[in-house]
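Researcher:
Attend to token order:
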Amino acid sequence: MRVVMFGYQTWGHRTLQALLESEHDVVLVVTHPKSEHAYEKIWSDSVADLAEEHGVPVLIRNRPDDEELFARLKEADPDIIVANNWRTWIPPRIFGLPRRGTLNVHDSLLPKYAGFSPIIWAMINGEPEVGVTAHMMDDELDAGDIVRQEAVPVGPTDTATDLFHKTVDLIAPVTIGALDLIASGQTEFTKQDRSQASFFHKRAEEDIRIDWTWPAEDLERLVRAQSAPYPSAFAFHKGKRLEVVSAVVSEGRYGGTPGRIFYREGEGVVIVAGADARTGRNHGLAITRVRTEDGRELPATEYFTSMGGYLTSRP
């Protein structure tokens, strides 16, 4: 098939690479300009550079809503558009232009975790698996019929970075597998159960601020979800920002006021956390590594030279 690709960052780059290595013909690529947004500087492999290396024409757009773009798309005469990590709304006259519609590739197990940062949100929420979905685009965001979907389990020590690598490796088989079904003439695919749908927003500074009233199990997942190269979860100690680089749920149970710097346990320093309403247990978060305001990273047992005092959510 003749394919136009809409995509950005490493997700778009992997999609384009898969298309270039397939039997399909990539006739045009549309991508976003480079961004200084913290999360868009992560996993920032250039779709434009890859397309140019292979002689594929490239258009740079924030939004696909101008007449020049529409004219170029009509000239490209695509059988299908393939989109992955396109960050703005694609209007119906664009996604409905190709003979076989538009295939969107999304890094979640739709209908859950439509929208942004699905892997991080899924990890914070304790989901047992994550994955990649290829679905036909329609008027509602991430709501079209599912053509192909694959999942990977979330391990007990996996970070968001681990899950990124696991899911990005699914892009090629999911995308090309879906295109093969479409090219074969199949037009009936799996309807999404919209009663199971959930939609999440972009991550921001407020989303990585530690709230010590959360149960330790939830805080531990937050720390793993904010693994490098993502910005680390943070709190404040004596008015200065302190990033929590790694942590585990304490073995012992520790009561008291959430945020209290309480006890050395193993390789970590236990901070009192909120009680888990599901189990009634009150474990702490045993912080093992921290990063200070001046960028020093060190073991928590070296940073906390004495017990007592509090970590707070704000200065």
About this structure: DSSP finds nine helices and 16 strands in the chain. The CA atoms of residues 261 and 271 lie 5 Å apart. The domain at 1-198 is CATH 3.40.50.170 (Rossmann fold).
